[in-house]
Design a protein that fits this description.
The chain has one domain (2-152). Helices cover 37% and strands 10% of the residues. The chain has nine helices and four strands. The strands form two sheets. Strands 1-2 form a two-stranded antiparallel ribbon. The radius of gyration is 17 Å and the shape is globular.
Length: 187
C-alpha cells in the first residue's frame, strides 16, 4: 500500500507544551494540526508500511468498538516492530491527523468541560505518549488498540475461527470477546 508519515519530535513537543493554548481545538470536528505553519516540514516519511486502510469504526452508544478497532489497526500495521510501536511520534500523528475523527468520537474532550486541568491531562494522556510513563502506550487512544491486538494475536493457530479471548477486563469495552485469529499467547 503506502508508508505512514510520523511527526518530527519538535512538532510533538510543541503540540504537547501548547495543549492548554489549543485545548478548544481538541473539540473541533476537523484535524487542526494540518493547518499549522510549516506542517509538511514537521513530518518524516517513515518505514512504517500500511497493509490496509486506517479505517476504524466509530463508537455507537455504549458499544465502543475497541476490539474490532484493535483488529483493524493491527491488520493495517501488522509488521510494525516493537521499537516502531514505542515511538510517540507515530501515535501522536495518528491521533492528531489520520484518525482524528475516531479520536474525537471515542475520546471527546467535552467530557471534562467543567474542569480545565482534567481536560488538559486527558488530552495529554489520550492524544500523546509520555516517554517517562510505562503505561503511556496503553493510555494513548490509538497505541492501546495496536498493542492490545499485538499481544493477543497468534497467526500460527490452525483453527482460527473457533477461538475466543476474554479480553480487556478493565477496559470500557465491557469485557467483549475476540474471535478469529486473535488469541492470548501462552509465551
Amino acid at each position: 500500500m503506502s508508508t505512514l508519515d510520523v511527526f518530527r519530535t519538535p512538532l510533538v513537543e510543541v503540540l504537547r507544551t501548547s495543549i492548554s493554548t489549543n485545548i478548544e481545538r481538541y473539540a473541533e470536528d476537523e484535524p487542526w494540526v494540518t493547518e499549522l505553519p510549516a506542517f509538511s516540514s514537521k513530518q518524516l516519511v517513515s518505514a512504517v508500511e500500511l497493509k490496509a486502510p486506517l479505517d476504524l469504526l466509530l463508537p455507537e452508544g455504549t458499544d465502543l468498538k475497541d476490539i474490532e478497532n484493535a483488529m483493524r489497526l493491527h491488520r493495517a500495521l501488522p509488521h510494525l516492530t516493537p521499537l516502531q510501536a514505542r515511538d510517540p511520534r507515530l501515535w501522536t500523528r495518528l491521533a492528531h491527523v489520520d484518525l482524528w475523527t475516531y479520536m474525537r468520537d471515542r475520546w471527546p474532550v467535552e467530557r471534562f468541560a467543567d474542569d480545565a486541568d482534567k481536560r488538559i491531562r486527558f488530552v495529554e494522556g489520550r492524544y500523546f505518549v509520555a516517554r517517562s510513563e510505562s503505561r503511556a502506550l496503553l493510555r494513548n487512544g490509538i497505541a492501546r488498540l495496536w498493542w492490545t491486538a499485538r499481544l493477543s494475536y497468534d497467526g500460527n493457530r490452525q483453527n482460527r475461527t473457533n477461538l475466543q479471548l476474554f479480553c480487556c477486563p478493565r477496559s470500557t469495552s465491557h469485557n467483549r470477546y475476540l474471535s478469529a485469529e486473535w488469541v492470548v499467547r501462552a509465551s
